[in-house]
Amino acid sequence: MKLTLSVRANHLKNVAGVMKGTSDPFAVITVLPMDLSEKPHILGKTEIVKNTLDPDFVTTFTVDYNLGSETKVLVKLYDHVSKGDNISMGSTTFEIGNVLGSKGSMRTKKLKDNRGTITIKVEELKDFGHLKLKLGGVELKNRDGWFNKSDPFYEIWKKDFGGNVSQWNVVHRSSYIKDDLNPVWELDHLDLGLLCSGNRDELLLLKVFDHEGDGDHKLMGETKTSVNHLVSTMGSEGLTLLRKGEDTGKIIVHVAEIIESGAEEEDIPVQAMSNVQIGVSTPSVNPPQKKTGTSFVDYIRGGCEISLHVAIDFTGSNGDPRLEGTLHYIHRDGSYNDYEKAIKAVGDILLKYDSDKLVPVFGFGAKYDGVVNHCFQCGPDAEVREVDGIINAYRQTFASGLILSSPTVFTEVIQNSAARAMSAQGQAFEEGKQKYTVLLILTDGAVSDVEATARCIDAIDSAPLSIVIVGIGNADFGAMQCIDDSSSDVDIAQFVKFNDYKDNLRDLTSAVLDEIPKQLEKCFASRGVLPNPPEVLDEEEEIALEPEEEEEIDLSIAFDENGNIIY
Q: Which SUPFAM superfamilies did the record assign (predicted)?
């Protein structure tokens, strides 16, 4: 999936120097490689915002994200200095999955040494079409003194659903026109996904400023509007600008035309809302790929949580756990066996989407008091917290008096998990929320009754549940693949062989979780359950996370005399 990433910073430390005014910040965004042998990928830099320590950057960036893979980005701030000799203002890293799973899909981190905070927000990039817009001003009130005329430009602002409910952020900025109180700005092509998230009735603010070289632009007037309002206003007497309640001129809509998603039009430069600077030329990007339906990201941004259930195979074919080399052997040096590696790889990803991070851990295939149990609790607690809790519960099971036995049956585990998923969803719906569940089954062999297992999966297809089966060890897992294939009609089960990805756990999580987003979408859509509106993060909730020790990553980014990044 493709996400758009936007950046703002607050309370930055001024590094301009004595008698040199206030810093002119800009940010450079870099995707960090998970493999240290690979090179970082610089996405680009934002525009320069002059004379401020609280920049809200207009520039957005496109990031590829896969549920099963970690994607880390480095945000590094600079104070713009002529001839490319820019001064670092601090940096921090964000993991995109953590941001996406946070309330409002937004996350704030503190910079080291009390140098302020950086906030990023992510949204899915969808093709809602674009707006052809050409505006002009009529009899704007001069803000440039008796002997000069203002240099007007306009900005469009929308309410930021990732931050304080009352906070507005810039999403488009025009070029400025010198010495003209009746300006006609260039025709712009604005992406509706970035402009209004596809909601053409969303309230927007249109502000007109007098451009100043030092960045201290003077407000000439503002008005409330929307995309549909702009379209309906085309050719009319225009929109009245107000400043402090006083009429300060009008905005005339010369062109406001919506180009629908998928419509073809030659040579359309769609604005990326990413003007590098206020000037006569602005960069453009190609239109995003067409994607207009509700999606996994829509459900996550609406607060849908993903619960993780874990079920572990304790059949005798795993070998005596006291003997080194067997699948359940607990290493004395603290390193993980393959069961634990799979738990950590999948848990680290999915628990980002669960606020309480509580996980029930089940076992199957072991005898207690001479009776084979196909679904029992691992560890002393009904639910454990985070990955460490799962692994501790797994290890504590070996001290519970069990005897590894047979056969391999996990229909009871599936039924138990499905019932819990239905109950959790029902409770969430009562609270106006949404919840989905992923059952991770770890096994060293094929199930004893393939047909019974397939029937069980078919029977619980109405549950908000995905089943991922990971095969541990070198057994013949052909029957497990049959279960994956046989459940194609309901498409909630998937099998992955651990040894195929043993040397690259990033690829394991990608393979394991690849189908989860589509399964979640299909589950809710088939029941007519639409995503909730994006969650709003109250000001009191916007807590800046403390910087982590490993986060001050110094990438040697060079700039030429024009301020361009030298790759």
A: C2 domain (Calcium/lipid-binding domain, CaLB), vWA-like
Q: How many domains does the chain have?
A: 3
- For residue 155, what are the domain limits? 130-259
* Contact status, residue 342 vs residue 508, Cβ threshold 8 Å: yes
Of 15 and 286, which is predicted with more confidence?
Answer: 15
Strands across the sheet with 493-497, in order?
Answer: 376-377, 361-364, 305-313, 435-443, 465-471, 493-497
Closest CA to 312 of 397, 407, 188, 213: 397
SS3 per-residue string spanning 157-185 = EEECCCCCCCCEEEEEECCCCCCCCCCEC
Domain termination site, one of 243, 259, 275: 259
Is residue 381 situated within a structural domain? Answer: yes
Residue-wise over 530-561: b if at least 16 C-beta within 10 A, else e? ebeebbebeeeebebeebeeebeeeeebebee
Model pTM?
0.74
DSSP assignments along 419-474, one per residue: HHHHHHHHHHHHTT--EEEEEEEEESS--S-HHHHHHHHHHTTTSSEEEEEEE-SS
Q: Tens digit of pLDDT for each residue in 379-400?
A: 999 999 999 999 999 999 999 9
Residues 46 and 58 sit within 8 Å (Cβ to Cβ): yes
Residues 394/378, Cβ–Cβ less than 8 Å: yes
Residue 269 pLDDT class (50, 70, 90 cuts)? very low
- Residue 551's pLDDT band (cuts 50, 70, 90): very low
Q: Are residues 372 and 501 in the same domain?
A: yes
Say whether pLDDT at 172 is over 70: yes
Beta bridge partners of residue 209, listed in sequence order = 153, 219
Tell the residue number behind the tokens 């607050």, with chain if given: 10
Q: Is residue 268 part of a domain?
A: no
Q: Which of 504, 472, 494 has the alpha carbon at shortest distance from 340?
A: 472
Stated as kind and residue range, the H or E segment containing 297 is: helix 296-301
326-362 pLDDT, tens digit per residue, is: 999 999 999 999 999 999 999 999 999 999 999 999 9
Given this model, what pLDDT does residue 291 score? Answer: 46
For 458, residues 6+ apart whose C-beta sits below 8 A from its C-beta are 487, 489, 490
